[in-house]
Design a protein that fits this description.
124 residues
């Protein structure tokens, strides 16, 4: 999803969050991520956990891809002025500055730390 802004920064585009950073783009990316993510995740989990029977269900892969894709749109919509969630139908930015940027940053950071601690505790 963030390949578009990366290319935009390299190529000097004025708008970095347009085609992939809206509800339609998020859905298309999620549909691709369901298939690629399932295969890649199973490979990595089998390699790391050394369990031959490790499988991710299609339901989990679908839920994960959709949640990740649409939450990305939500978070980016709160902080990027060139992000239009309903593009191409509307260029409204109803999410912009709804929550202060520092709350978003520290909320994600604290969630990362908390998730890491839970992961480490689960591993023991």
């Amino acid at each position: 999803m963030d390949i578009e802004p990366l290319l935009g920064m390299i190529l000097g585009w004025k708008t970095l969050h347009l085609y992939t950073h809206n509800l339609i783009g998020a859905l298309l990316i999620a549909l691709i991520a369901i298939h690629i993510g399932k295969v890649m995740s199973e490979f990595v989990l089998r390699s790391l956990l050394k369990q031959k029977n490790w499988q991710i269900t299609w339901r989990v892969a679908t839920f994960s891809a959709l949640t990740g894709s649409f939450s990305h749109i939500l978070l980016d919509g709160l902080m990027h002025a060139d992000m239009y969630p309903f593009y191409p139908f509307s260029q409204t930015q109803f999410l912009l500055n709804l929550i202060p940027y520092c709350f978003i940053f520290y909320g994600c950071f604290i969630g990362f730390i908390f998730g890491g601690i839970l992961f480490l505790l689960h591993e023991k």
